Amino acid sequence: MRFHTLKEILSGQLLTGAKHSFEYLSTDSRLVRVPAKTLFFAIRGANRDGHDYINDAYEKGIRQFIIDRSVDIQSFPGADVFQVKSSVVALQEIAAHHRQAFQYPVIAITGSNGKTTVKEWLGTLLTQKRHVVKSPGSYNSQIGVPLSVWEMNIHHEIGIFEAGISTTGEMHQLAQVIRPDIGIFTNIGPAHDQGFENRKQKAIEKSALFGGCKQVICRAEHKTVVQTLEKSNPSEIIRWSTQDQDADFYYQIDSNHCLASFQCKTAKFILPSAFQSSVENILHAITAAILLGLRQEEIQRGLDMIQPLDMRLTLKSGINQCQLVDDSYNNDLQGLSVALDFLRSQSGNTSKTVIVSDFLQTGETEQVLYQKFDEMLVHSKIDRLIGVGAFISKYSFAVPNQSFPDTDSLLKNLPEFYKETILIKGARNFEFEKVVAALEEKQHRTILEVNFQALIRNLNQYKSLIESNTRIMVMVKAFGYGGGSREIANLLQFHNIDYLGVAYADEAIELRNAGIKLPIMIMNPPVSTFKTLERYNLEPEIFNIAGLRELLSLQIEVPIHLKIESGMNRLGFREQELDELVSLVNSASKLKIASIFTHFSSADDPGEDQFTRKQADLFDRCYDKIAGAIGYQPIKHAVNSVGIIRWPKYHFDMVRLGIGLYGFDSSSQRLLDPISSLKTHISQIKQVKKGESIGYSRSGKAQRDMELAVIPIGYADGYLRVFGNGQGKVNLHEQLVPTIGNICMDMTMIDVTGQEAKEGDLVEVFGHSPSIQDLAGWAETIPYEILTSISHRVKRVYISE
Predict the structure, then answer these.
(1) Each residue of 178-187: pLDDT tens digit?
(2) SS (H, E, C) 128-160
(3) Is the pTM of this model over 0.85?
(4) Residues forming the active site
């Protein structure tokens, strides 16, 4: 699109000449494909203002900008600038104008849960017959939807876009951008309840997406959804059901066999293993595929290719100190852009390698396609490319590369990898899961999944509670609260956090070696580690006179953080020690105090609010005395996660975010997303007769003939012994089943009588159900202990939705 055509689309003022044209849209100066062809939208958010990053975007080569407040355009010679009332609205209007150029069918998906899964699975079915454009990842917001719709082009034959809202009035804008022909309303549940008066209002708001649809698909059993569509939507409602034979589509499921009855016809399908915990999602996708004219054999071919979404964009430990970004489910330029962004956020100081297959069924000509691909590799500063397939092997690229005709050839002649971050992205029929298996570090089948998108949502919730000039220190001690400090720190660095906090020097050194450049405060550094601090640019907490004297004697130049004892009676300088403290500090002309802080002991307890105020008053006195004596004002901070919520008056210059980032709020005032789920698989099934004993000390007794399963997790993995003998429960097939017998070091037995369990079945130890809070309650402890107990031998897998 030519920049000058924006005058015909937007209300606003063209501030400069309009010499350029653009192919790409960006709202993040860090995530740019081809700068010279990119239009940058400076968007003001609750905590960040995109106008502050215009200079960064300009330095990267962007010359086209949409702004909604005044900027000094003379600082950006040669740039095209258009000023509007709202950059977000302008983004939506440009995408809506672009959408009008295409007449092929567009499907819109909304609902409380399952949007992304339905979109991905339906996309897999439809690619058996048509060229599909779809939302990358979970791009379903006021910004994500227009960015997704912008990807539509003349080579596509059908579009699939998801739309999500968090409060009233948002869906109308998204409906104008997508203009769907067919809708899918997945379900209505508790997600984002806080943004609506009630569940009924939320359903009405979501249904606004379908105002112009010809047909809307929903499940007949979801009465609120059906009733809302009947009252507020003129479209034809297509109801499907597993219970009501009179529904438009009636599905009978026996094991993994499905018989569909519709419009006086029937069709038989064999469902993929992925459907077992997601029957609703797969049937939404099948219904839409049938309505769009796919034949039974085409749908079945797509079903055979479906995999669980945990195959999408996950970070895993690889061989030879490598990290793997596993996106082996499909391959298209939209998804590749998201995957490359994720690769850059996690690579730290390691080299970046991409293993990629041919791009299939994109609708674009080969030459244009691979030219765009080459530009993306160059901009992402990829160090090595490994291409697999007949088409990609024909082309040369600007980055060092080698190619293989097929996956088997790659596996037989596998190149060497060492200390690299490797993106593995392939079209489904290339079976790149075999490549992942060859490069993945071998560990047992118990894994801890860490959801990066949930973590960022939690971070943004806390950002919304503080002033824009208040800094954030995030605690990544104790192996990132069990989640993996290196991976989480890389993500936080990508999102411009101000400080990291760890407990010990070895944790900080590991982060430095992983490429973390953020300031790091060490909360409990042994004196023996002081000499290493300067080498790694680390900042120690100093909490007593002896430690300060030792630091000064070494004559090292590192910023320090002074801890004040205000009532916790743990570490810190008492008020009566301040005169000696100030004297020592002033005797060292090169010593820099980075911050002065304290820790509230009971910020979460309303019954101790008076004591918290007393602590704050004491801290104020101590801070003022030190700052007055040294002649400058170091960063001042006191509150932790719950303090951010309950004590805004004590946010001062910086807040310290810990357990809240990981999904837990002891004040119960914020609806946070748990970021971790612990999963394993059944190793063996056993039939046990009534009266037989189970486990060590014969503590488990069969009260009836029963069936038990052995799962490979025990107290050495962090599953506490207290959970034995029925005290703990795990999730099998969406049912909680009890443990039986004592928890062993490496194994646990569970009662699966009547559950139709089989060896290899997935078992959730904690996550959605049971939650970590459930386990903490059963063990009479706190979520911190459950999280930090998960041992290092449990494999961590990092998911970006």
Answers:
(1) 999 999 999 9
(2) CCCCEEECCCCCCCCCHHHHHHCCCCCCCCEEE
(3) no
(4) 477, 696
